[in-house]
Structures are given as structure tokens and as C-alpha cells.
TrEMBL record, chains A, B, C, D, E, F:
CDD domains: HDc, YhaM_OBF_like. One of its GO terms (molecular function) is nucleic acid binding. It comes from the Bacteria. Keywords: Hydrolase. This is HD domain-containing protein.
């Protein structure tokens, strides 16, 4: 029986399979007796599998070259304890195929364009012209990558569009808390949220699927906090923003991890910097709690979660 | 020139003064030559002053006995380096005097009855009948004292109605964040906020002006977290609440200080307990930041603030 | 050659074996061709082995049902790298078989009934009637489980009767030190020892062999210290014990781990609470030292012991 | 009215006083007009007072020279806000005066000769001849000073005979615990107690009243733990004690403070070293608790005690 | 008797005094009856004293206006417990007066021009043209202030020219250690020393006497480490220095305090950054030790020194 | 093809091999059928391999007995997954074979005799006769072992002659820094370097190839710092050195690890002790950095290095 659109992690040797996958890498190789074939790494949300198109054709190579998403039909084999997909048929995604890239890889629960629009509407809420202009400049500079960058290599929001999603939720939470704590200057809150992690884009090398291969040289030697401060300094000077405003934003970036051992040599000295820290940590923790409890039965505890100081989280029984 | 309603801290020897004050203590004493006089401690928001009514009369004693707020006219003297008020005239507050107790002592910025109403409307938002009933029972039990109790002996919200105000703001912030993080069970958030500090009423002895004289015996030996847990256990058993619900609420109280060295031997294991901790600390910090920056000129730093890890807070120049 | 009463850990494939074992679980199963057989898990102090009675008989099933301790004769096989015992003959322990359960599972070095008697004689030494009555009530409530509960899941005293043995030794040491430090109120010392860990019975799920399968829901969310405090509160109120006495005992339970990071948010504030902490830790350490040095040759060090901060203990040469 | 044997701290200007005091320092001085007088510092358990004998006589000087304890009659004056005693009559303590030095200065509650006898009887309990001989040698070497040395400059047992008293109580407690934990080698416990603090005699300079003026040069640069180790090494080599025994005793001294930050770079690696640590700390804590609660009313807390991590100790109401 | 050039700290009421002092502030004031006088604050290495020129003359005002160093003759009075100098005669320093500013205020032991020359000769030793050019640019930018800036507000090298002196000694020590550890790239060591603290000039406001009045706004919100990184980034970009070189220097500045809690969120990742840290701390410590032991007698300890973790330093007896 | 002098770690089953190796252990054994053979453990810098000489001859046994370094020809086999060398021919190192022991085992980069000479010339630089004599005595006492002892079991300088090399580099660096910080007493620096780790020889058991098998009993129970202090005390007393000098040297040894948790209960109280600490740590770190970066490509980071707090070190691109 042919399995349609079964997750890669669930494919079993001996089965036939048909479905949409993402091509991560591919290469035209030769067998020991000189015959050409195509070697492809296919991925979806649940894992990856090596696939072989033993009958090399120009057309097949073009399919692999031209497409990210392909529809594949084949048989699952086992080779030295590893699963392999013998491809019988492959074609590119057609316009009317009902499949999106976000269905194939781990990604934020909102479409990235939609998130970007929401973010930009928040930028418009900044009343101070200089601050708004600075934020606008920097966000635009990194906009392309912001559409797909994750917020981390591992841990919270480490998926496609994770950085943008993290920023958006912090924006929303910040806006809400600003309604309770009315003395807060929302311009700095919005700008701080927008800039606090933006240089993760420079700190980490990520591909367009939101997967971080490594930290960059500058990322390892300085880190995104320092990189972010330099970004504000440099772009602020270009724009000619009031010096105090630039420094206050730099201070917010500098202090947002709060503790020296987590990378912030200064503690927040303005209410907006203090709030930024809590917006950041609340969003990270809510993410971790929500995802850690996924798939846990009511009345059960999770295993120890290293990220959360080895806590075992509990999913209540009566939680309708 | 007679100073009308000058703050106590601003009275200067040699001045005449007339105004409303609060009587904290009073006593009928005798001079060395046997003459009776009345010795009174008057206070307002800014401090306290010893006052003497040298002409003892039955009427004056009754004024002091029957009133909290009095109108006093007198002269400011200095005696051994300490200011003293020689009272020439004293009467109780009349119905049409435009003065409220909250104008004379440090207190929450919202009237306590109004806060209590708001709190009760939040209780009604709890959907789970058992939880709502438990919260309702406990709040009612302590309602009288909740109207005036401060949230601390020193530090944040240590004034008349401070505990209630702290709870109300956390409620509001919790409600807002619940709109962003939709998977949160708001019943536990509302109940957790309501119960997390309620036993400060048992931990500290406070007078009706919101001033804590000392911690109670049980408060010192156990503390309000442990006292709160026992309260939930006992009242929960009386009501016959589902055992898991009771324990989850106890866990929220137990873990809300987050760190063992601040009194929480367990870290939060549910998202609601995690959020409760952040609602608590954000409200305390916003209070501290707002009040520490009062009276600071733009472009200036505060002195080092012990409560905030010796930070010097900054009030920006361009903060309209 | 048939091995008589060889430890399970020493059984080797190919050997015949005959001896007494404990039945931990058993089940009547069917082979793929529908034949019934009995599947048993046998344990002794050194480990466990799966056993099969391929010839199902009603009699054999009754033996497994009616007995904890059985005498088994069989052959040791190896199946997929795991040892298995093919049972040829099985019978229950007969009255004159010279074997006790404490010889088959790790357990305290004193019989549990004897320990319980000793404990009860200490309860009688409590002079204050209210305290004695409270302790008596709580110990009686948990007496059945106290006879076999271990003191921990892992670590010190984690064996059959370990909790009772731990309490008894602390009682003895407390009595002795009370002779040196005469100002100590022994009523609180005896009661404190009795109550400090009693709610480990509620914190952990243990079977009647003293093996902990897991912590309970309430155990994970609150822990035995908090559970113990609630126990004293509730039972104390029922008895109508003087409030200060109840709170002092609760304080002793609360503070007996001494350090916040080990679960005690308050440090001891009475001499008796202080002493309780040291009785607890000395007994745990003496246990760890004694057992860690078992089987070490004179003049040798143990390996690093994680429980004891990675120390290598030393067994002296000249220690006659 | 003449106050007889009133404590120094209670003398009031204008009173006459008569009683026994200890002479701490005295000096023959001259007034501005050349008249000789004697200036004396008198002390008792409660404090010290400056005294003047304005009529210099050879006899009075001899009284001050020849005696520690004197009987003084005089008047209490006040000079620049400080109390002073104008001496009218002074004589040395007579044989039949019923006063002991231990009544005038803070000291251990047992006579020092009695403590020393008790200690020596414990030395005889050491079965190993080499260890007994080593302990005997070292104790004899410091015996004279051990009779009066305090155990500390400040803190616990910082009074006349305090070191000896501390050792004695640890001996007693060690003997008792050895009856509970039978696997302990008591020879090492007794020797360890005897030697663990003996070099405080070399670490601190104390006068014969048990008052420490300062630490010695070697005391500051090395400390009594290191000094004690060297003492055992050196004396052990002289006696020709088995090397392992010497090193085990040195290890006990080295590890008895337990934590590196309190001076022990190694943690105990033998049960006897472990027990020594607990004997030491229990004796110190019991001392601190007992003395801190002296003079506290039932139902009251002490002030915060720095030595005990700022705890407020509690004296129960119902503690008969 | 007139004291010539006595230190301010040694002036006693009643004495006459004549000597050179530095004018810190001066003001023309009026007495209550309208008479003009000049109020001056005089300082030297040992302290400061208020001085009054009661006979106002235009000439005297010009002396105070035109000079830093003045010669003053007067009488020492005492006013409300504070010493005051009544000036009888005042004149400016004449060319042939043998007095230098460095004799009047705490300052580095080498003349600042000489130190600057030495520093510049080290810059020439940098072989890499880009690095040399960057260092040269930045040092020149701050050269004027570097001539007098202290290295700290309090603590080590907090005197005139202290920053320059600190850099010079580190240069010398770095050069020496480079001879032992030959694999070290000296270009980075020299550049790192030059740049590591250069932005203390932006972090602190100091006057030309090397006295810091306060930290700057940017200094408090960001700190000299972050400021230094931005300086290298900005100047490096202007020069067009190779990006890796710029980042390596920024990393050296970032990591030179080594521990997060001292301001370095990253630990050194190159040997040169590691060495820079040790050059910095050794120079600070050698300074502290040398100065703390000044004025201590051989065989004596200093008081506890807060800066050095409350150590008491020792000056040996036999230290010729 | 026969591999000549291939590293042991690179030998592959099936290859022939010929080269020089070190004999670590050898034994004459018998096969199950009674035939004698020689079993040898051969080592070089890269690892060890078991070798068999199946044809036992008296001559071959003598070769193994008489030589450390042998030349071996044989075949590499694989036996149960482990490589083994079947020896066809073996002979001792001949005088004109161009091979040194330092080529076969990890060792210091300078010949040990040369290092020892250098060390002795530093001893001659000590001006104080008593200190020089003490150092000379102790170094001579351990000279034989100092020639080959490593400085550690693992970590920095853990190879043949490592201890001596560590001392020599510290001497050189100390001499250099003494030129910058002229107030330092170099006698103590030289003596301190010489003595600070000398008792590692007593703390660890090492063979003549610089490999530590284990710590000694005294090493584990006391450690080289305490052992070094006793050494100075004992030898100092024999020589009759001035007591203060001895104690200052003991203090240097005691404090050279600086932090209590690293074994130093006292912090340095003299400038020389302070400097000794930094000489020690700098030499260790320079060693670690230099060796960790060996074999890393320019522009790359190392893996996380546990010894260096999990840092990833960076090797710059442009580091010619």
C-alpha cells in the first residue's frame, strides 16, 4: 500500500510512499561502474531521508535544480541500518498543489509576510520621529533575512521565522502592559523590542529554512548584544539621531539579558529597559512551557527539561 | 505668618501653623509640678511631630479620643534639637472639611472600596466553580484587613491599601497577557494572583493606617508562603474542592518567589505558576522604578537604590 | 552442578540453580500457539531475573498467587543477550524454611517490628501531653507504611524499613546529645525527629519491598516538607493543640534541610530545630560513609562518590 | 548609699561604690602641677571603668603591683561624659575573701582544673599507644596556656577557658555519638577533638584573662589549621609514630572546617574526620543558641544575630 | 612659629603657615555687612582647607584668577570645628620657585610628557600597518586628555596621569612577557593595552588635576568597555582596516575584565586577549600592594583593605 | 609495504611496520599448549600497542630486559577488535641510532639537564643566604625526580619534565616582571617559584616517563600545598633559618592557588606571594592556549575546551 504524505519519521522499510518533500541538498554522482544517478536529501518537519534517483535524466536533474518542494513517489529501503528512498517518480510542486513550505519545515504559526506587516504597523506607532526612523532603517536593512531567521540555534523559537514571531509577540505583550503601567514611554518599548535581538542575524549563520549551521566569527567573539549596540551607534550617527536617544536604546539592548553571566554587564536603568527584559523572558518561557507540554497526557509530568532548570512540568487533569 | 496645611517635614521653628493632621498616639500626662497636659503624636504623609496641649481640658481630651483627623493651630518650637508643636487650638474633622485620610498618609492611588469592587469583579471571571468558591471564601475571610493592609513592611507597596493595589494591578496585567498567550488557563491566573500574598495579612501586624509594626510569631517562623498554602489546604478541604485544583493553587503560592533563596523551594511547573511569578515581579519593579524616579530632574540619575541591586536609575532628557 | 542459593547477579547461562527468591510480578500468558505459561519476575538483594514456567498448572499459578517467597529449581538460559530462568519446580516457602524476606531484599539491619517498638517507647518519653498526642496520632496514621517505607528513592536509607531506621538512629543520637546539651527541650527533639520526614510516605510511591517507583503528584508539586507542615497543622487543629506548639513543630520541619536550595526557606530559630538538622545530616552521612567503605581494602580509597561531593573515602591500614 | 559589688555597667555618677574588681592596667602618672597619682583600669564581667587614686602612696602602688583582684571603695564621677571612679580606699584580695577570678571575668562554667582532669581522662581512653602518646605530648606542651585560652577572639567560646571547655564538650558529645555509630574508631575521634583547635594557642595572642589582643604573625599568614598540621607532623616524627596515623590526624585537622571558604581545602575522607566536623559545629551552635537566648523573654525573638546568618531566634512561651 | 610648606593635613589651629598650594575653587563673596572678601579652596597632596582673604583687592583677585599654584602666608584658625586659613599674603608661583604641580597633587611618578613619548615609541613597534594606524588615530584623538586622566574614580591609579602610567607599565610588562612566551603576537598585545581602557576618558568626567567628579551619562549606561568597542568599530571602518583585525581588538577590549560580573560577557579566546587580562590585573595589584604597604613598619600588618578582599598585607621584618 | 617509524596511532591491520618504540611493560608468558612467548607493551607519543614475540629466545628476553628503546619489525594484526603487533625482529637501540627518548614520549621542549642547569643558576641569584640554602637543600633532595616529573596528572604540563619546565618558565617570567616592578623582593619570587609545586613529587606517583599512575595516600589526604609547607617548616628548622623567612615562604606556597575552592585558604599578603600566583596561572594558561591552538586552521575555532571554562579559542586568519 502506498502511504500518501506520511511524515518522514514514520516511513518504514518495505513501504511505498508518495508525498511532498523539501530538497535540502542534491548532487549528481556516479556508481562504481560509472553510471550517473542523483543523490538527494529530502526533509520535512519530522526529519530527513536520503533518496536516490538511479535513472539519471536531464529532466530529473532540472526538477531538482528548479524546485524546493517536490512530489516524490518511491519505495522505502534499508541500507546498513539506515532508511533510504528509492525514487520512482519525481516532479516539482505545481501551482495548484495545495502545499506550503511552512507545512514542510518547523516554522512560526503565522505566515511571515503577515508577521512583517504587523511589525511594520507597530513601527508606525512610534511617535518620536528620530527613533522611528532609526528603527525603520535597521529593520529594513535586515528585512530579507528577518523573514526566515530563527531566534536561536537551539532552544526557544529556533525555527523558520522564529525571530520575527518572537518580536511580534513581545510587541503585543508590551503594548498590553503599557496599558496597565501608563507611565511607560512606549516609543522605547517598541524600539527596544525591535532592536534587542536583531543582530542575531549577524551572530548566527542560518539558511532560508531557519536552520542555524553555526555562529559567525564576530558572533562568537562579540555576540549579538554587542553587535546590536554597534548597529544602533552606526546607523544612529548616520541619521543624526539625538545622542541620548541612541544611548538609551543601546542601553536597552545591553541590559536586556539582565544578569552579567547571561551577557548583560549593566542592569536596566530605565523603566523601559526593565520592561524589555521581562517581555523577552516571558515570551521565551511561554514558548517553552507551551511546547514542552504538547503531547503530554493530562495528569502527567514531562521529563526533566534542561532548559527550564531541570523542571518536570505538569499538565493538569481537569484542564479543559 | 501662619502656614496653612504645610507638610510636617517642612515646618520650621518659629513659624505658626494651621492644618489637618492624623493622631497616631496621645496620652494625658502631668508636668513636674503636677499640671495635666495632653501629649500627642501627629503625622501626615511626610513625617510626624510631637505636639503638646498645655491647657488640659476635658473637651480637648475628648477631641483626641473621638477623632483620627484633627485640625490644629499652633506654634512650631524647637526643644533639644527636636521640633515640637505647641497647640493653641484643636478640633475634630467636620463633615464638610474637605480632607480624606488618604491625603494624610501614604496610600494607594485608588480608593480602597473601588479596588475591592474591581477585585470582586475579577473573581466572577473565574469559570471553575470550585476555584471561584475557594477564592471567594478566602478573600471574604480577610476582606476587612485587605482594605488597608500594605504589601510589605518596607519596599514596594508598603502603604495603606498597598496589598490590594498590588493584587489589582497584577490582575489587570494578567488579564492582558492572557490575551497574547491564549493557551493560559485564566482561572488559575486570577486565583493565583488573589491568593499568592493574601497571608501577608497573617505574616505581619499592621495598623489601620497601613503601617507594619512587626512580623507575627507565625510569620517569622513560617512566612506568608507557607501560611498561604495551609490556608488553601484547610479552606479547600472544607469546601470539598477537587484535590488536584487545591494542590495546583498551593504550588502556585509555593513557587511564586521563583528562587529558593527568596523563599520558593519549588520552581513553577505549570504555565500559570510561571506567569504568576512574572506578574508579581513586574508589578513590584514598575512600582519601584516609577517611585524612584519621582522628583528626579530630566537628565539626572538617582542615587544608588539598594532595593534594585544598587542601580542608579536614569530619567531621560527628552521624555515628554 | 546445581548452584544452591546463588545470588541472582551471579547466575550464569548453562548452570542449574536452586534457591529462594522473591516474586515481584507474575502473569499467566499464552504462547503464539496458544499454550498457557507463567511469566514471573524473581528478585533478590542482588538483582532480578525473568523466569518462565512453561507447564502451566493450576497448582503453579496458586503458588505464585499465594506466596511472596518461593523456592525454585531451574536452568539458566540466555535469550537475546538476557538471562532467563527456565523453572522446573516451584513451591512456596514452608514454615520451617530458614529464610526471611529481609535476606532477599535490601533492608534495615534491625527487624521493623523491633524498630517500631523502640520508636513508640521514645514517643512515651515526650512529657508534654499535647505534643505526645499529636505525634502519636500522626505516627499511628502512617504506621502500616512506616514499617516498610524507605527514606529515599535513591541515596541514603533507600531500602526496606529505611525511613524507620533513619528515625530510630536519629532518636538515639538526639537522646545522647541531649545529655550533653542540657538546656535542650527533648520533647521537641523527639517530636521533630518523628515528624520531619514522615510525609515522605505521601511524597513517594513505594511498594512493600521498599522500592520507590516514582514521586506522587503532590510530592513533586509541593514536597514532603510542605506536606509535613500541613499534616501537623491539620492534625494539630483536630486535637486542639496549643497553637505555638504546632507552629514550632511546623518550623522544625520547614527548617530541617537548613539551606534554601535544599528546600528550607527558613533557617532554624530554636535550638531544637538547629539540633534536628544536625541529627538528620549526621545520620545520613554516617550511613553513606559506612556503606561506601564496605568492601574497600585497608589502605585503599573508594572511587569518587557523587553523593559526597565527589570525595574519595579512605579506609585506613591500621584500623583494627 | 554605698553600692556593694554592683556591676561596673550599672554604676551611676553620684553613687558611692564598694566591691571587688580586676586590675587590667595601671600606671603611676603626674598631674600638670607635678603631683603623683595612680591611674588604673578596673574591669569585671560587665565592662571596665577608669579609676584614679589621687593620693599616691608607696603602699597603694604595691597593692596595684601585687594583686590582680582588689577591693575598692570610692565615688563614681562623670568626666567629659565618661564615668570615672575616684578611689578612696584600695586593698588586695585577702585569702578569706569569698571571690574568684571567674566571678569577675567571662569564663567557662566549669573550673579549668576540673576540665583539664576530664580531658586527661579522655586521653587515657585512646587505645592506640602511638596516637595516645602523640596527643599526650602535644596537650602537655600547651597545657599551661590551655588552662586559660579562649576558643576565639570574638564569637563562640571567646572567654577564659573557652578553648578547653569547647574541647571537653566535643569529647563528651563524641563519646555519646560513638555509642550510636559503633563502626567509628574512637581513638581518632578523641585525638581529633584534642588536636583540631590546639594551635589557636599559636594563632592568637591572649592574656591570662582569656582576652585576645590580636592574631600572631604566623597566625595571620598561615592560620591554626596549618599550624596544627605542622605540629602533628613535627611531634609525630619525634615520637616515631606510624606515618599513616600522623597523616590521618593531619587530615582531620585540615578538613574540620569542611568548606574551602572556611579554611579547609580538603573535605573529610574518613568517618572520623566527618564526625569531628559535626562535633565542632554542633558545639559552636549550641553555645550560640544558648547564649543568644539568655535574657530573652518567653514569646519573644532576639534581634538579628549576624553570627547566625542574621537569624532572629525565638524563645517559646510554653517552655518550662 | 611659622610652618613652611607643611602639609595641609598637618596644619593645627593657632599656627602660622607659609607655603605653596593649589587653588581648586575661588569666589568673591560679601560679608553680612557688605564687605567683599575672597573665599578660596586650597589643596595639596594631603587634603584641602578653606581660606579667606578678608581684605579684598583687585590684585588679590587677579592672583587667584591667573594662577593655579600660589604661595600663601597666613594663620590657621578653627571655625565650628573646621580648620580655616586666614590669608595675610598671597602671590602667584614665580618662574624660579622650585615647585611643580606634581608635588601638590597626587600624580604618576613619571612626568606625563615622558610617559607619552614612551607610549608613542611602543606604537611604532606595532608591525601591522593597519593596526598601528588605528591605534595611532585613537590615541591621538584622546591625547590631550590622556596626559592628565586618572585610571579610575577611586582605587588603583586614581591620580593625575594615572591612566597613562597604567598603560605604560602594562606595555613594559607585556613586552617582557612576550620574550618568554614567544608565540604571542605582540602587535595585538601592544594595541590591546593601548585601547583597553582608553574610553575611560569618555566614561568619567575628570578635571585637569586628575580628579573625577562623576561618571558621564554614557559611562553609566554603557561603560568604557562598550564605549571602547564602538570606538574601534567606528575608527576602524573609517580607516578601512581588515574586519577581522578590528573584531579581534574589540574582543580584547570586551574580554579584558575576564569575569561577567566585572563587565566582560565573553572570556578571552585568543592568547593575546588572555595575556591582556593578566597584564591589566597584575599592574593594578602591584600598584595596590606597593601603595598599601607605604608607611607600614616592618613586622606589621596593614588594616583590612577592602579593595583587596579585606586582606591585611604584611611588611616583612628582614626586607632590606 | 613496510611503514617506517609510523606513529602507533596510525598503524592499520594488514600493514607491515618497522620502527623505534619504548617498552612500557613486558612479561614472559606461556600459550595454552605450554609454549613460551614474550608479551610486550610498546608506546610512543601517540599511543600504545600490545606486541607478541611468539618465538621465545633467551636473546629476545635480554633485549627486552636491557633496553627501554627498541627497534621492532613486525606485522599489524587485529584481534577481537584490538590491534596487535606480531614481532618478527627486535633489537635494542644502538649507540648510533638517531633516536631520543624525548622523541618517543610527550616531554618538555628543552632537555631536562639543560633546564636543571638553568634552574640552578637562578638559585644562585638568591641573595639571602638562608633562603638560598633552604631552596638549594630542598631542590637537591628532589632533584632526581624533578628531572622527569610532570606538573600534573592531566592538564597543563602533564608530560616528561613538565614540572621542571613549568618552574623554569615561571622563573624567566618572574625575572622579567621584577624589572618592571622594582619594589619586588626577587629572593622570595625565585624561592617561591622553586618551592610552590615541588611537593607534587610527593603528591603524585609518576614513572620515569612522566606518566602519573595515581595520587599518593598523603597526596589525596593533604595535597601538595600542605606537603610543601611541611617541607619548608622541617627543612627550615634543620637549617636554622630565620623563622619569619620560613613562614613567608610557607605563606607563598599556601596562597599560590589564590581561591579557597582551588586549595588556598589564605590569599596572598605580600607582593611576592601575589606575583607568584600570577606567574603560576599565566604559565599554565599560555601552555593551554599554545597547545589548544596547535593543528587548528587559521580562521577557525577550536571545540569547547573544558579546562578553559568551555571556551572556543580562535586562530586568526592574518596571523603570520
Amino acid at each position: 500500500m502506498t502511504k500518501i504524505n506520511k511524515n518522514i519519521s514514520e516511513l518504514r522499510p518495505g513501504e511505498k510512499s508518495e508525498g511532498f518533500y523539501l530538497i535540502k541538498n542534491f548532487e549528481v554522482k556516479k556508481t562504481t561502474n560509472g553510471k550517473q544517478y542523483i543523490d538527494i536529501e529530502l526533509v520535512d518537519k519530522t526529519g530527513s531521508i536520503n533518496a536516490k534517483i538511479w535513472d539519471y535524466t536531464k529532466e530529473n536533474e532540472e526538477v531538482a535544480t528548479d524546485n524546493s518542494i517536490v512530489k516524490v513517489r518511491g519505495e522505502v529501503l534499508e541500507w546498513n541500518g539506515t532508511k533510504q528512498l528509492k525514487v520512482n517518480k519525481i516532479r516539482g510542486k505545481l501551482p495548484n498543489d495545495d502545499i506550503k513550505i511552512s507545512e514542510l519545515i518547523p516554522s512560526a504559526p503565522i505566515e511571515n509576510e503577515e508577521m512583517m506587516n504587523a511589525l511594520e504597523s507597530y513601527i508606525k506607532k512610534i511617535k518620536d520621529e528620530e527613533i522611528r526612523s532609526l528603527v525603520d532603517t535597521i529593520i529594513n536593512k535586515y528585512k530579507d533575512r528577518l523573514l526566515y531567521y530563527p531566534a536561536a540555534k537551539k532552544n526557544h523559537h529556533s525555527y523558520l521565522g522564529g525571530l520575527l514571531y518572537h518580536m511580534l509577540r513581545m510587541m503585543q505583550a508590551g503594548e498590553k502592559l503599557g496599558q496597565v503601567y501608563g507611565f511607560i514611554n512606549m516609543d522605547y518599548v517598541y524600539a527596544g523590542v525591535m532592536l534587542h535581538d536583531i543582530c542575531k542575524i549577524l551572530e548566527m549563520d542560518a539558511d532560508t529554512y531557519g536552520v542555524v549551521s553555526d555562529y559567525t566569527m564576530e558572533g562568537k567573539l562579540l555576540g549579538h548584544i554587542i553587535q546590536g549596540i554597534k548597529e544602533i551607534e552606526t546607523e544612529g550617527e548616520k541619521i543624526g539621531i539625538d545622542r541620548e536617544k541612541s544611548i538609551l536604546l543601546q542601553h536597552m539592548v545591553l541590559s536586556h539579558h539582565y544578569e552579567p553571566e547571561f551577557g548583560s554587564p549593566k542592569k536596566p536603568m530605565t523603566p523601559e529597559a526593565e520592561l524589555l527584559h521581562f517581555l523577552d523572558i516571558i515570551d521565551a518561557r511561554m514558548f517553552d512551557f507551551e511546547h514542552s507540554l504538547e503531547g503530554i497526557d493530562p495528569g502527567q509530568f514531562t521529563d526533566k527539561i534542561w532548559l527550564l532548570d531541570n523542571r518536570n512540568l505538569y499538565k493538569p487533569m481537569n484542564n479543559e
